[in-house]
Batch of 4 targets.
Target 1
Amino acid sequence: MLADFMEFSFLRHTFITGILIGLIAPLLGSFIVVRRLSLIADALSHVTLAGIAFGLLLEKRIPVFAIPPLYSGMFFSVIGAVLIEKLRRVYKGFQELAIPVILSGGVGLSVIFISMANGFNTDLFNYLFGSVSAVSKNDFLTIVGISIFVFIVVMIFYKELFTLSFDEVHARVSGIHAKWIHFLFIVLTALVIAASIRIVGVLLVSALMTLPVASSMQIAKGFKQMVLFSIVFGELAVIIGVITGYYLDILPGGTIVMVSIAILFIAMRWKKTSIRTFRRRRESE
């Protein structure tokens, strides 16, 4: 089944990109879920859509100033991430309010840019739902760079991110520069969301950051184990989703999400069965 993916360069780029996204999206998603910021992925994905629509608008109206949509989407996503962090400081008692504000702004800008470009086109449709054949060589190299950067930063600042995720007060007392770590984390999240859009699509990217984590929470016995299982489940969902999407001629974003949901139900069933087995053993003793 992998013959075509190894033979054609564009499919090989897509497959490797999927593997990288399956690694970094659940990796950051584990921290996002623990920090109860699951909806931030939705907000930044819609801001990224605004950036992509802006890039496509420039390509159509002012080709001289055209920016690759992936880069314009990445720029908008980072700006959106910074604004979310600033709004969270403004509304200290209602920090979650920052997310719907930025999400609404992203949707509003997307509608404006799409309208100015005279509606949807094939490229924008691929960004919305993902595509097996949409990853160009430049996109591939950019995503490889982002993946390496994200992985290295998380490994270097793992202890700080872990401490901030579970006990921010203790982290500040311990001398951790919470402000800069928060800023770095949210920028990484923005970059991962922008990178994931080529494979999963704007409307489904948040699922890849949260569903594998939700599945791993059912069976993991610690945070590190949860991160490991999240990555394994994310990789399974992406690989199965991309391959089946190609051979069934359907958009990969939908298949990736449905595989992730199937894994979640299996994990829930596994946990339920394990609990029953444990209770029976205790009763028999």
Target 2
Amino acid sequence: MKVSGFTFIKNGEMLGYPFVASIKSILPILDEFVIAVGKSDDDTLEIINSINSQKIKVLETQWNEEMHDRGFVYAQQKMIAQYNCSGDWAFYLEGDEIIHEKDLDTIYKNMELHLENLKVEALYFNYHHFYGKPDQKFISGYKTAPRIIRNTIRSYSPDGLFFVVMDQNKKGRYPFAVDAGCYIYHYGHVRKTSCNQIKDKQVSKYWGEQNKKLFENYGNIDLGELRKFTGSHPEIIQDWLESEAEKDFKHNPEYKITLKDRKHRVRFWLLDNLGIDISHKHYFKAKI
């Protein structure tokens, strides 16, 4: 079995992403890691090239700065990396996502287990979305997402988050997936507030949001969406958490609950009290 990893990144250092920790977190179970590195205004390319691993394959790319349609430039860069993968499986991990070292063996064994079962097209992960500080997470984000795709099927990425499989080249659908058996640790919302402000200024144009109100602070959130995190963080992210993560979370007491927040609360109640999960999923559960 051959396993490829892939991702894309641009201005990762400037935007405060823990991309080096992200890359290193899955290297032990990969045969290659393909990284599409966009032309940056910082030392992102040099930092990646300094990682001491023969598994890493860097593709230097140019982003389409005129692509302002709902973040599709991210999908383009993701596909550039994906289409250069040569493994049986292709494992997509974003620059603010980390795999815990305790889960590597489980992930690898699940890929081995389903390698010959063509009914399984992808593996999906649960998520810890950290918010405001490292011991706090929010639950309104996507609960699960497919991150490993079988690399011998016709698939593409219309979005940075998910995959679409083409049936007979005519109609797209989500892949049939099984549980990878563990979590992805998502740190994008514990970066320093200043990094999030820079990110909003730089990337809002790719979403057609040039006049978007820029990020102010982590305090503008419904407290009903936050939970205490009592688990352990991956070892490889510890230094970044100590030096780069936001730690001074202060809720805005004047924050007004929105209609979207109320819909989230209904979803949380259904799951907590009735075990009913109505969250959207970008995959179908494989029948195995």
Target 3
Amino acid sequence: MVSQSIQSTWEQRLFALAQDALCFSSEKVRPLAEMEKTQALRIANRVCETITARNSRSFYLATSLLPREKRTAMRSLYAFCRTADNLADDNIQQPEIQLRQLRQDIRGRRQNAADAVLTAWADISQCYQIPVCYAEQLLDGVESDLVERRYHTFEDLSVYCYNVASTVGLMSMYITGFLSQKAVPYAIKLGVALQLTNILRDVGEDWSIGRLYLPVEELRAFGLDEEDIAAKALDERWREFMRFQIARARRLYAEALPGIALLHPDGRFAVAAAATLYQGILDDIERHDYDVFSRRAYVNRGLKLKALLRAFGYTQMIRLHMLEDQDYDYYYQEKKYGL
């Protein structure tokens, strides 16, 4: 039975991709605290923490709300995803060969002391039984950046968003812990919402390197084309287009939030915080008259604090409505619950 949270054709398509990638283990996963702490792994974890802090202050802040072991694992996952994403940069030599090698590395799950990020990935993928197919779908998204420069419809774009963002959320669930597969559609929607936020924030930056992630058909529907993007046209057509895109992203955030209740209690605040912090980027775009060409939208310290308070209030509301949490047995793999 298809989840009630899946409402449209593109959502069904993404859900099918997630189902195809499911490789659940029949055994409970050993927590990271029980894993042997080698010197190489300790070094690898420090490297991944540095990568996370340098590249995403919002994600670094959100993951600081997790217990230590999960925080370390989540930042290792971020570092792996960031390393993969960097292979699509224009200054990378022979990116196809490097992506092919990375696919071989993650499938083998080899600890490579010479590569800190792969060492950390091997540890968390084994410890939390993260389906390697999700990581391979992430690499599919990275590879598409080497050839795809335009997306004609939102459905086309949604597949890209799934590959580069929803897969990260799905892998993250194995670290936070989740109650049932019912969490999957919510994670997919949250990933699409987060990636749409990135896309709207980075229009100008992406255009400067020859990329446009806005659906071409929707640009045309608002009377816009690539010449308008190149001219940085901040007119009413652009404002209406951005209002439409922001409204869609906010709708996806709202539809994804109920899935937080299906996560392990000690991971809910971090996920709610990440979602709330990213929505603040949309607010900032609006405050600056939808100018995403001459500035990069961000959330200042005061607004981050307000976002964290809203996220905390939301998770407290969940807790009050789920007083039976202590009776739940949160697994890192499939349980008896069906979709």
Target 4
Amino acid sequence: MQNLRCINKEEWNDALKRLLVSHLIYATTENGSNLDYELITETNVNHISYNRPKPVTPLKSFFLPVRENVTTINSPEKPRIIIGTPACDAEGLGILDEMYLDEDFKDIFYKSKRESTILISADCFGILEHCHCLSYGIKPYPTGIADLAIIEKNGIIIFRILSTKGEQFLNTITAAVIPEDKSIAEFIEEKHSSTESLLIEANKALPDYKRTGILVSEAKKEIWKKYSATCVSCGACTTICPTCTCFLLIDKPGFEKIKQLDACQYPGFERVAGGEDGLAELPQRFRNRYMCKYVWKPERFNSVACTGCGRCIEACIGKINKNELFMELA
């Protein structure tokens, strides 16, 4: 119980309104059937949605813009608070941190954004059709990476403290107190268990992360031809993925360089100046994405390269379901 804090929802909304003076606040709000991030103002602070999976936009968009000038240091923005991020997205920052905060190749722009952000993740109460985080060892509620986990229960906002930064932030909100009611902890445990049960039932035929890597590396070319048949090389799967990080550096007049996100599914992704292209054929490009996520990155990084959010399945114009591919391999 010691890592829990509670605050009345009205007091929490008032605290957010006060923080608008010093912070940019982004939070998940409902827009019809979709959930996505919105810049919070005094007029929409009451519209924040908690504990519903999952926003359309991946969290990485806040830290890796599609286009970014890396030769111009802009004036620092206000610090940010991001509210409502699901655990799959928070865990996605793990591999981004390993890449962009590496001591030998530190990205000062990414570092600045990470340090100036308070991340308040949300426990997922329920799942969507393609959610499969638990299959890859990620709980449907934050256990790290984020600074706080947030839960709404009958007009009460409950926080689980996940970092010193999160605890320090809560200390600025004097109304947040340690709950004495044991039913709150029981409520959280029941919700966690319920969501995990849904994930287990929905994905019982899906191999785990390690097993998937073995299956992908051993798969014959026929399977890649079959599942890439409807791929249009649009790059939606990589763009919306919370862990894909490939980028180009584009030279501009005036000695400027623009860092622009790239996608391994684009034709010409691996083409070199001499004209050679190891991924010229569509099935090869298609296979490359899965080899990267399930074979090559696990060899290099500690964090998983797929967090089971399912967005790539939802965004695919060709209606390609990677989970069906893996289950067929299994």
